[in-house]
Structure formats: C-alpha cells, structure tokens
C-alpha cells in the first residue's frame, strides 16, 4: 500500500498518457512533467516568500506580515495569503523601460534567466522513479545550464545603461564565476565515489542502510566537508546573504535589476528563487540522500514527501542565515572563494580518493577526518594570520 | 535529414552571421552565444551528449562571458562612429566565398564519404572516462599543463604595469619619520567612555 | 543528400562566416569571435564524422573535440589578455592602428 502511495505520481502520469495515441506518447509525457514542475515549484516559491518574511521578522523580534488572508473573502490566514496580493501587484505595476536602454536585450534578460533555471529541474529526482529525464551525464547538464544564467545577469546589467546596474552585474558575475569552482569540485567527490554522473544512480548509492542509518554521503567525513562547501557555494550562487552584495538595497540599490519594474522584476525574483530551489535540490540529491529516508524504519513515508521536507528544511536554514549573518565585502568574498574554499575543495577530493582506496575498514574514518580537520585548521589560521582583530570597542550615544 | 536539424542549423548560421556583422559589439557577443547554443543543440542531435553539455559549459558559460568582460574593459561598449570594416574587406569576403565553394564542392562530390547511415552509437560517460585514463592519458596531462600555463600567462599579460614602481614610492614614503599621527582620530581608539 | 553531407555543409558555411568576419572586421575582439566560430565549425566536422563514420566506439572524434574545446578556452583567455594589454598601451583596439613596431 505504501509503495503505491509512493509511486502515485508515476501511475498518474502513465494513466494520463495512455489516453494519447502511441506516436504522441513521449511528447504527452514530457508535457505532463513540464506542467507538474511549472505548477509545483512556483507554489513552493510563493510559500517560501511568506516564510521568509515572517521568519526574518520573528528572528528580528517583530511580526512579519500578519493580516492578509485570502482577498475578497472572509477567510483569515494571519498573513499567509500575502503572496496573492504580491503577485497581483507585480503583474499590474507599470512597466518602466529607461529611454536610453537597449530595448531588445532589456526585454530578453528575464527570459534568458528563467529558461536555464527551469531546465535545471529536468534532471533532479524528486522521488523514486520520479525524475523527468534520466541523462547519463545529468550532473554535467545541471552545471552547464547553471553557467548560462550568468549571461542573463550581464544582459540585465548592461542593457539598463546605468552605472550602478553595470557595476552590480559585473560583481554578480565575478561572484558567480568564482563560487562555481568550489561548487563543482565538491560535487566531483560524490561522482568519484559513485562512479557515475547520473543523479538517480547517485541516490541509489545512498539508499542502503547499516544499523538502521542510511548511507548518506553527508555522514562521511569527506561528505560533510563537501556538503558544507556546497552549501556555502550555493548561498553565493543564488546571491543570498551573506553573499548578496550585488543586489543589496543598502549597497547598490538593487544591482543589476534596478531598472526593472512590474512583471519583469517578478520574473527575475522568481528566477532567483527557483535557482535557489534547484541548487538546494541538487545538494540534497548529492549529499543528503535525495528521496531516501535517514533511518530504515521510516521508509514507509513517500519519497517525494522526504524530498520536499529536506528542501524546506534547507530553505529554512537559508532564511535563518539571511537573518543572522552580516554581508561580506567584495574583496572578502573573493578571498574566501579563491584562498579558502578552493584549496579545501581540492583537499576534499584527495580525501575522497583516500577513503575509496583504504577499503571498507573502520580506520578510514579517523584518517580522513583528521586530514580534513587539519587542512581546515591550517588554512583558517594561516589566512587569519595577518589580520589583527582588535578588542571590540563600544561607543554609546551620549 | 529531420526538419529539427535544419531549423537548428539555420539558427546557428543566423547567429554567426549576426555575430560578424552587427555594429554594436555587445550585440555581436550575444549573437555569438546564440550560435554556440545552436552548435550545442546540433551536437545533441548527433548523439554526442557529453560534448553538447560540455560545449554549453565551456563556450556559453565561460568564453562568452570572457569576451563580454573584455569588451567592457576595453570600452568598446558604445557603437563605433567610423566604418567597422577593414580596408581590404571586399577581398576578404571574396576569399571566404571561395573557401565555402571549394568545401561545398568537395563535400557534395567526394567519393570517400560513407553513404549508408549507421544507427546512433551509445556512448556513456564511463566509456569517455575509461578512454581518457587509458588511451588518451598523455593528451589529458598535457592539456592540464597547457591550461595552467595559459592561466598564468593570461594573468601576467593583463597585469597592470607600474605596480613595481608604485611599491618603491611607498617604501620611500615610509622611511620619513612622522611626528603627528597621520590618521585623524587614531588617538581615540583606545577608550570607549570619556 | 545524406545527413553527413548536410552536417558538413552547415559546418563549412559556419567556417566561411567565421573566416569572413575574422578577415573583414577592424576590432580585435571580433577577430577573436571569428576564430572561435571557425574552431566550432571544425569541432562540428569531427562530431559529424564520428557519428556517421565506420568506428564510433573508438571515441576518437569525441576526444579530439574535448581537447579542442579546452585549447580554445585557453587560447581565448590568452588572446583577450593580449587585447586588454594592447588597449592599455595604445588606447585603441582597432587593428588598423596597431601597426607600428615602435612602442
């Protein structure tokens, strides 16, 4: 019974597609999958905006939006209906294009941002047998379309003919390019151990249980280091605090989407959040076991429920970090990527190789953990050596 | 050949033609990115999956961004006022037309081209990895060396000159004794409450 | 016209367009764009012959194209660094004006 509940979307897909003649079945199957992704993930986006505003509000000891229910009805939702008026507002606001702007490029930039981000969802396995396509090189496809987003950032910044937009776009591209390298290198460790770039294969590798605990890669030393590196790099790739210098309001107004209003701004916002979900989904697939459950006595919970809960848990951690940490300056950001994360990612690859070749004994755990911790301590101490942090000085208003 | 292939080919060629003929350089770079995506789509239709994805990653994700950065760093973002063509442009177009004619004639009339169409080969990433580690390991290592040399070389060539002479000036300035603190307010840095 | 001939004609036309641009335009970066298009045309040729040729399991076409892409990336980086260095020195990226040996 639980297996049929688990596979309910797959059986629904087969049932829907059976109405179509034989020749058109692949096309119909793709269309149904596309409709599924297009309806679920913008819904998750709407819920996330509400959780973000209320969550940041509570962390900052204030209420977030707490009045809006469903408009035109008397249903009270205490602020959880905020996304409906937000959506209507962004659809109906006036679309202002600067007079000197390059109109075609200005129009196409949000489109060019959304298309690769939506394409990235095609390889993520949302549940058992539930990935839209099963490419042999699925991970490479994900990183390839992730690289195409940078072009849209440049198009948005340059076509606005605004100094600050261009500056924000250049900073955003430099940041994205720099943090792509630790992102890809931390994913390479998983590929080394599994031996395949296929994401369903990677999840199958983590679907084994020892003493009731799953073989998630995050429970191994190199997997934990890799997951932390991937997490920090994905914060930087989605331009979230503490890496949101390119789009922070107090720094550069809104960076590369200063000159966008109305629906185009909503498209950029949607694209950014969808990109965040896609990269969190990839992190879950690579390190947190995808759709598998952590303990063997909870496998009766459907696989897509596990995926969605892990996604929302990591989104909550993203929101928590946004409310807590201050922003990094541009040079601090670049130093962090090139001098700290890149060497650690390379050492992580070495440690993953040592893990594989030490065989399946218990000795590999302390050896690998010691190497990673030693590298982290040496790099951390070495990089902080020249910076003298003085005693904290408090100046009060008198 | 399937119509999808013809459409992708036409899009690629149009992108390349626009990339070479527009006046505004940034538009040329964006048209070039379209041409690269078209070539990647052609690779995917020829059953070379890995190469298609690698093309998007390398060309659209990196080389197009590099060209765009170079356009901005050399201040070529505005439209040029004089002619964009060199002085011998007619000869150049004639030679390129001649090149295409010769290549097209060779393709259409050659007897060495295999006539029958074999089914699409199934190539997994594992095959490519095995080949890279056994038969092609020497080119792999050489490519690593070449990329390192190119990285160091590009940084050295584009490095700002005069950083050496600026460092000498700083050294001379530091040697002069300074009686008053050069940073205003540094006397107040030790206390909180007056 | 077999599929192989269609592919080869597309790649020949792409090469001719890249060549025409590299030879006729004045700006140094456009010459580099032309060179990249020519390299892509050659890679397309390799993949076409790999797909329709006699021994696709030997992976020679794919290997050649992968190494060619890596080299094209390295060459684009160095070429653009040179363009930036020349611009810094001569304040122009117009190839017609960069013709004196005296600095």
Structure report:
- The complex is a heterotrimer of chains A (398), B (194) and C (103).
- Chain A is mainly α and 398 residues long.
- Helix content of chain A is 64%, strand content 1%.
- Chain A has 15 helices and 2 strands.
- Chain A is globular and about 65 Å long.
- Among the domains of chain B are: 1-77, Up-down Bundle (Four Helix Bundle (Hemerythrin (Met), subunit A)); 121-160.
- Chain B has helices spanning 3-21, 25-45, 49-73, 89-109, 125-134, 137-158, 163-175.
- In chain B, helix 1 runs antiparallel to helix 2 (25-45) and helix 2 (25-45) runs antiparallel to helix 3.
- Chain B has 194 residues and is mostly helical.
- The model of chain B is unreliable at 178-194 (pLDDT under 50).
- Chain B is globular and about 55 Å long.
- Chain C has 103 residues and is mostly helical.
- Chain C has a single domain (3-90), classed as Helix Hairpins (Orthogonal Bundle).
- Chain C is built from 3 helices and no strands.
- Chain C has helices spanning 3-24, 28-52, 60-90.
- The relative contact order of chain C is 0.13.
- The model of chain C has no long low-confidence stretch (mean pLDDT 90).
- Classes of the chains: A mainly alpha (398), B mainly alpha (194), C mainly alpha (103).
- Chains in contact: A-B, B-C.
- The interface between B and C is large, with 85 and 72 residues.
Give the SSE layout.
The complex is a heterotrimer of chains A (398), B (194) and C (103).
Chain A: H1 2-6, H2 8-17, H3 25-59, H4 83-92, H5 103-120, H6 138-147, H7 149-159, H8 163-194, H9 199-205, E1 209-210, E2 213-214, H10 221-237, H11 249-252, H12 263-287, H13 303-324, H14 330-357, H15 364-383
Antiparallel strand pairs in A: 1-2
Chain B: H1 3-21, H2 25-45, H3 49-73, H4 89-109, H5 125-134, H6 137-158, H7 163-175
Helix pairs in contact in B: 1-2, 2-3
Chain C: H1 3-24, H2 28-52, H3 60-90
Helix pairs in contact in C: 1-2, 2-3
Put the structure in a nutshell.
The complex is a heterotrimer of chains A (398), B (194) and C (103). With 398 residues, chain A is mainly alpha-helical.
% residues in beta strands of chain A: under 5%
Outline type of chain A: globular
CATH architecture of the domain at 1-77 in chain B: Up-down Bundle
Average pLDDT of chain B, rounded to a whole number, is 82
Given the C-alpha coordinates, what overall shape of chain B results? globular
Q: Kindly provide the name of the CATH class of the domain at 1-77 in chain B.
A: Mainly Alpha
Strand content of chain B: under 5%
Q: Show unreliable segments of chain B.
A: 178-194
Counting structural domains of chain A, the number is 1
Unreliable residue runs of chain A: none
How far apart lie the N and C ends of chain A? 70 Å
Indicate the percent of residues in helices of chain B: 55-70%
Q: What is the helix/strand order of chain B?
A: HHHHHHH
Question: Helix/strand-derived class of chain A?
Answer: mainly alpha
For the biggest sheet of chain B, the summary is: none
The arrangement of helices and strands of chain A along the chain is: HHHHHHHHHEEHHHHHH
